[in-house]
Amino acid sequence: MSKDGSPTKTISDFEAGLAKADANVASFAKDDRNLFYMMRGFLRAHPTTIPTLVLIVSVIAFGIIAPRFLTPLALSTVLQQVTVTGIIAIAQTLIILTAGIDLSVGAVLVVTSLIMGNLAVHMGVPLPFAVIIGMFFGALMGWLNGVLVAVIKLPPFIVTLGTLSIFTALKLWYSGSESVRNADIVEKAPGLLWFGEAFRFGGAKLTYGSISLVVVAVLVWFLLNRTAWGRHVHAIGDDPDAARLSGIRTRRTLISVYVLAGAICGFAGWVAIGRVGSVSPISFETVNLGSITAVVIGGTSLFGGRASIMGSVLGALIVGVFNTGLSLAGVDDYWQLFAAGTLVIIAVALDQWLRRASQ
């Protein structure tokens, strides 16, 4: 008997009550795996699909509007025009993959090109050393950004907005607002122009700078997709707290991302000299926004954790195709800017839609 006078229940009483209970296993409603849902999942898993399709369709469309556009010479010219932006976009992709953004990439490019130009032309430093020193300073500027973001914990947007102004001031001070002329480069350091040299391939006219874009893209793709470092970078971009708890050295890895991005910008500075033929402290002022545009159009998520190096290159090509195609079609420049802005908005909206596929 229990304290309140009621009979005490035995184990057999509980078993008898259990036998009357509902024996059905709890189940949860499954998402409707329709074609629309599967397509969204596929596009999220293969971010280069959409930029590839957009590039193909835009090339065909502009080829119909302006038949001259489909000539090998015109298409190779597009590739030459986006070479520098494409390399910078690769560096930008690394930063955006970690849920950051770098507004100083253009200033880093110009500073490093000025260092290379002045060392090789005005100071007589051998070309290999001038290039290495320039890329070192690019990595150093990237290191500064990385320390401020990873150690001081400042927002990447604010950090790189500040260093953009700092590096811009430094390039004007270092150069004395003067350019390194093409004639001086040709006379004293012609190797600086090597990436601008062209060769014929069928009916196309390619430059070594265009080839370098492909090489850099392949190397960075390999680092991100076939190395432990690349997996750590993806993990930090997806969830930095979970990455830290899993044993990843998030600070060191994040700083290394900014250092590598700065070194790539330094290399782009050398390519830019060959592309333009001279070194100017006021050149490539729009490459910051151009690189972000290429990265977003290429399928990299602005929220981190998902990126595509090849997609960023395709994004740069898409912008170049639109600009060249609209120009050949006789469209005014401001409509070219309008088209680029529209592409960015559509790409970000698509990214939001694809992010919901995993939620």
From TrEMBL:
It comes from the Bacteria. GO terms for cellular component: plasma membrane. It is found in: Cell membrane. Keywords: Cell inner membrane, Cell membrane, Membrane, Transmembrane, Transmembrane helix, Transport. It is a multi-pass membrane protein. InterPro entries: ABC_transp_permease. One of its GO terms (molecular function) is transmembrane transporter activity. This is ABC transporter permease. The keyword Mitochondrion does not apply. The chain crosses the membrane at residues 48-66, 78-96, 103-121, 127-150, 157-174, 206-224, 254-273, 279-297, 309-328, 334-354. Coiled coil: none annotated. The keyword Metal-binding does not apply.
